[in-house]
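Recap from last week: sequence in, structure out.
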Amino acid sequence: MGRHPFITTLFHRFQDERNIYMVLELVQCGDLWSFIQGNGRLPNEAARFYAAQIVMAVQYLHGEHIMFRDLNPSNVMLDRGCYVKLIDFGLSKILNFDDPTARTWTLCGSPEYLAAEIITSKGHSREVDWWALGIVIYEMLAGYPPFYDRDAFKIYQLVLNETVTVEGMPKHFEMMAKDLIKKLLVKNVPHRIGSSKNGAEDIKKHKWFRGLNWAALYNKQLELSQVMQGCHYQPVVKSPTDISILEKKVLGQSKQQVDSEEENGPTLEEDKDKTIFGGWESLESVKQIQRNTNH
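Predicted structure tokens:
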């Protein structure tokens, strides 16, 4: 898979006898969830700005026959320019989208963002990413997702039994945003926007995105002052190496516990190790490269 401006870049990966390591680009401005919470909710222009980037990132993944399957605001990071970077592909799945009957049945993902076909275990494909997009757009505009409860099972019941309607959405939603959300949150998969052979192109042509310069957005050339108008909270980094936002949101998570688990974890059987990670460099080889470079 090649690089995409709205997907985090993997620079290198290697392993030792107990762990695997992945060197990813530094994405400094925290996640979309924190950005939404910091503002309470996002203005229409900002929500459209982020939704359009997510559409292009997911369209690229689908072009590579990859379902993301865990689209939610916590897996959408913001770079130093406040543009999107999708992260965390632990639940992603490769599927032959050229075969319209191809399906997978694993129940996975964050409950608030799961499509009905995942919950019912009837088999699902790439359309689940478009359902999740509808939830994310709703959450950006409202400050909360349409289906929520502390009990995951009750969320599943809401998804299966409730229908998101234009009339039921908050009154401050722009009408075309309501229309797109309604078309994304369709339980009848063939009728969900994005499910046809045109895929993401149908979503990009929706009237909510009318007037958006997709090429300028892809090249990160849009005037952000207009897009961010109305956002009283905007993440600020002071330098290319400033990780203060990440320290608060990510790195503060029980570091001692993580270190302990890494040191005490089981080693992988040698044959299985070669089968899964045969193409990965070892940690020792990376250290040798560093020693040679220093000399």
